Amino acid sequence: MATIASLKDSKKPNRFQKIKKEYPNIGLAYLYILPAFLIMLFITFYPLLFQVWMSFTDFKLANLRLMNPDFTGIKNYFDVIIRGLPVTNYNFGRIFVFNLFWTFINVFLHVVIGITVALILNQENMPAKRLYRSLFVIPWALPSLISGMMWANMWHDKFGAVNLLLQQIGLRGDIRWLLEPTPVINLPQIGLVLPLSFFAVLIANVWLGWPFMMVIATGALQTIPKEVYEAAEMDGVSGFNKIRLITLPLIRPSMVPAIMIGIMMTFNQFNIIYFVTGGGPLGLTEILVTQGFKLVNPQGWYGIASAFNIIVFIILAIITLITNRITKATEPYYA
Predict the structure, then answer these.
(1) Phi and psi for 72 in degrees, rounded to 5?
(2) Whole-model pTM?
(3) Over the stretch 94-142, which tens digit does the pLDDT of each residue have?
(4) Is 157 in contact with 163 (CB distance < 8 Å)?
(5) What domains appear along the chain, each with residue ranges and CATH number?
């Protein structure tokens, strides 16, 4: 009897055989994705693992030829977060708080302005709305590097367009928009210090970012049937209540993923910060990604920069997971 039972057990298909039976072409499928996996292995996974290794060493410019840095353990991580680095006005906590504030104030303004403009241009009696939509997309279509350099010139304290315009209308035209270190807003309780240059770079990034939200909102508005609004009017719903009760809930499935993208892009908005203010004055408009770049160029601290950027990656991953859980951006939505 034991022999018969063992023979029956031996005939039972194992896990691999079950998968092969259920998916007979699974080997061919993996063969198709093998080239992409190999490419990703060399251009993505290997650099990431190499960066993790560097973060535990004192890798500097002098080590580039011989690749012989000394192992330092978690010293780089400790220096980045707690002990500090010999960089002008460096404070990881302050930079992190500023980065969060920078991200969410920008995304909030992007969404509000984008949806508002989309609603205005969605009116049937709005003249030349196609022309306006085309013009409004230009800031988003331009490379952010070009936009950053353009706005840096506009905010120049002597020759910038903003100060020249103020002179023409009889106002003070020598404001040091990007160089004045005196905080306009100072909240030491949470480590938030906002100089005048923050508002200069905020205006530049809002100008750059809201057209993206307008495009997404415009596409979402086109999917709402007119009959929904007509039925709402018959029920006595009008004015702002139509927007609150109908428009916003129906465009939510499109806007929430766009907001998630906006958060990630703004959190790492290197070009606008770097080319408008350079993180100044005194590092008060520095965000994490620009500070990480400066640890490599010009400092050449590859080990410290690796640890710094891994910490930034972990922070951004946590923020993404939290916002995704709150907004349920990747879950199916049923109105």
Answers:
(1) -120, 0
(2) 0.84
(3) 999 999 999 999 999 999 999 999 999 988 888 888 898 889 999 888 8
(4) yes
(5) 13-42 (no CATH), 89-289 (1.10.3720.10)
CA-to-CA distance for 196 and 288, rounded, in angstroms? 20
* Residues found in the chain: 335
Residue 287 has pLDDT above 90, yes or no: yes
What pLDDT digit, counting tens, does each position of 303-328 carry?
Answer: 999 999 999 999 988 988 888 887 77
pLDDT, one tens digit per residue, over 96-109 is: 999 999 999 999 99
The Cα-based distances of 101 to 182, 211, 254, 266, 282 in angstroms read: 19, 21, 24, 11, 18
Residues 274 and 286: beta-carbon distance below 8 Å: no
Q: 91 near 191, Cβ under 8 Å?
A: yes
Across the range 199-221, mean pLDDT stands at: 93
CA-nearest of 283, 107, 114 to 202 is 107
